[in-house]
Design a protein that fits this description.
Strand content: 25-35%
Number of domains: 3
Structural class: alpha+beta
Radius of gyration: 23 Å
Shape: elongated
Number of strands: 11
């Protein structure tokens, strides 16, 4: 998601419009025209009173207790020409590309991608994002620590594993046999393919 936020006039430069590119709820890129000038991210550690961070070149340059204060910090320093110069990433992945990749993987697993995370049957599984070229995921209901992974597929796949873990009990496996095929996840299909009932063993026990 990209939207305009302010119009500023940096020293000795023409008027530029700052825009925000939403990577995830916790990560945003701030652009001046087509150029990335800073990022806003969130510190998920416990007991942090100023969790919102301004990052330039992967380094923290400011902290605040709200996202808006970080954005105001970037806007003011950009206007004054005192914001550190952000070096270009190579290759650069835009927020739209990241969102498209995540949406494609969610579709494969039958998940729904919303603004605040990934859902399955109205249950939030977690969040997926990519910061400075590093993919990560956060499981819902657990610590908000980002777990690094290799790709959008890996991130969504790990959330799918979390979603079907309760079905790992033998009784739940048998329940999957009565579940409509179009409601089975990729992991549930794998579990069914590997499931082998043992009626002979039961008969021996009964005897």
């Amino acid at each position: 998601m990209t939207y305009a936020t302010a119009t500023v006039t940096p020293a000795q430069e023409s008027v530029e419009e700052l825009t925000v590119v939403e990577i995830s709820f916790y990560d945003h890129e701030i652009h001046a025209g087509q150029k990335l000038i800073a990022s806003i991210t969130y510190d998920h550690n416990d007991f942090v009173t100023q969790p919102w961070l301004v990052m330039v070149n992967g380094e923290e340059i400011h902290r605040a207790n709200t996202w808006a204060k970080c954005h105001n910090f970037i806007t003011w320093h950009h206007t004054q020409g005192t914001l550190p110069v952000q070096q270009p990433f190579a290759p650069s992945t835009t927020g739209n590309e990241i969102k498209a990749d995540v949406a494609n993987e969610c579709e494969k697993f039958g998940f729904e991608l919303l603004d605040n995370g990934i859902y399955h049957r109205d249950v939030k599984l977690g969040e997926v994002g990519c910061t400075d070229g590093q993919w990560w995921f956060v499981r819902a209901g657990e610590s908000q620590e980002r777990v690094p992974c290799d790709s959008a597929f890996d991130a969504v796949w790990w959330l799918s594993i979390v979603e079907v873990l309760p079905a790992a009990e033998p009784a739940s496996l048998e329940e999957l046999l009565d579940k409509p095929f179009d409601q089975l996840t990729a992991e549930e299909w794998r579990m069914l393919l590997e499931y082998e009932p043992v009626p002979e063993s039961r008969e021996l026990v009964a005897a």
